[in-house]
Design goal:
By secondary structure, this protein is an alpha/beta fold. The chain contains 13 helices and 15 strands. The N terminus is likely disordered.
Length: 402
């Protein structure tokens, strides 16, 4: 530690500057990567895309890592195994929580910091759900019991959505318990519990404890194993509204995933009230977006992906006008600023229940769900393109088709 004494405050200032910069540009993650024989790269993920921010001299690398480890209460002597912890810093008087993971690489230790979304819940009307999805979702969440799943890959805004729903349901006459890992968004009126698998306090254990605590609504962070899924189904069948998340790609696929976990098709289809799949896509920068006439290829893409017979419902008319971002200082020349959700909401109808009983294929269930009024992620994305929130390139990313 002695060599550090001269420039220790410099390292402390450096780490503090990296954290403050990240919060200022609204980054979700900070990556500090060691490079063999070169300077250390600092990258930040903004709106889901990584970008280079700065470089640190290789000589400062271990000091910076050690400083971060001290802030996160990790063992600074142990450099051979991954470690994880949490640190907090203050920005403009508000505490900001950061999850820290260190990973040993061949070039030296790398650190990834995830800035947790502090603060309260987003109001439901800010979620940018289509009017049809808003109505469907509001009917689902007033049911006295059942299970509602929000699904999507990591970082697709599932927790934000669940807390928006809870914010809508959070009234004095409802007792709401949540089990989360970690608790990021806090709201007054909820009883929020942090699960800790290290000491054997798992989602399934938390769920059992909640059932003895007279709940009306239970939020369970994730149904990642059979035990939690079973307990969730049982809780919903005994008269509670259960909200949870799952890492699957689409709403119909979620059903087969849960049946693969060994859930009883009859119990699950009776318990399930709906499944909301979602993704985050980048939105056009409001400062520099401009209208332009759509090309034939773009018109073709919209027609093909949305279905010609349904185009009227999203206000499609020719000649089609779309929007694009020119790129300006505010959005760093990218043309995009911020993100919004695209959603796919499946409602459990009697016809779909019959298919779940038979354990039908994903495509059969998807077809039935569409007949029942579900619009796919891509269709919802196109609705947002026509609305002027985003462009076709972003929808192609989620659809995986050109």
């Amino acid at each position: 530690m002695d060599e550090l004494s001269d420039d220790a405050p410099a390292v402390v200032r450096l780490v503090s500057r990296i954290l403050h910069d990240a919060k200022r540009i609204n980054a979700s993650d900070i990556h500090i990567d060691a490079e063999k024989g070169g300077p250390t790269r600092v990258r930040m993920r903004v709106d889901g895309v990584c970008r280079d921010i700065t470089q640190l001299p290789a000589s400062h690398h271990s000091a910076v890592i050690a400083r971060i480890k001290i802030m996160a209460n990790l063992n600074i002597a142990e450099k051979r195994v991954p470690q994880d912890g949490k640190l907090a810093f203050r920005m403009q008087g508000k505490p900001v929580e950061v999850r820290v993971a260190t990973i040993p690489t061949v070039a030296g230790e790398g650190v990834v910091m995830r800035i947790l979304a502090a603060g309260g819940a987003m109001p439901m009307d800010k979620m940018n759900l289509s009017p049809r999805n808003t109505d469907m979702l509001k009917t689902m969440i007033v049911k006295p019991h059942g299970i509602l799943l929000v699904v999507g890959p990591t970082g697709s805004g599932k927790t934000t959505t669940l807390h928006a729903i809870l914010g809508h349901l959070n009234t004095p006459e409802k007792k709401i318990w949540t089990a989360e890992d970690p608790v990021e968004i806090t709201q007054p009126g909820l009883q929020q519990v942090q699960v800790s698998p290290k000491i054997g306090f798992t989602f399934a254990n938390a769920l059992r404890a909640f059932l003895r605590a007279d709940p009306d609504i239970i939020l369970i962070g994730e149904m990642r194993d059979k035990e939690t899924a079973h307990a969730g189904i049982e809780a919903s069948l005994t008269g509670h509204l259960v909200l949870s998340t799952l890492h699957t790609n689409s709403a119909p696929e979620t059903i087969t995933r849960l049946l693969d976990l060994g859930l009883d098709p009859v119990n699950f289809s009776d318990a399930c009230v709906g499944i909301l799949a979602q993704r985050l896509i980048r939105t056009l920068c409001k400062n520099c977006k401009e209208e332009y006439p759509a090309t034939d290829a773009e018109v073709g893409f919209v027609k093909r992906q949305y279905g010609e017979d349904k185009l009227e419902e999203i206000g499609f008319k020719e000649p089609l006008k779309l929007h694009r971002g020119k790129g300006c200082e505010e959005c760093g020349g990218t043309g995009y600023k911020g993100r919004t959700g695209v959603h796919e909401l499946l409602t459990m109808t009697p016809e779909l229940r019959a298919l779940v009983y038979k354990e039908a294929s994903v495509s059969a269930m998807a077809k039935q769900a569409t007949t029942d009024g579900m619009r796919t992620l891509v269709q919802d994305g196109l609705y947002k393109v026509l609305k002027g929130d985003t462009d076709i390139a972003q929808v192609q990313i989620i659809s995986g088709v050109e």
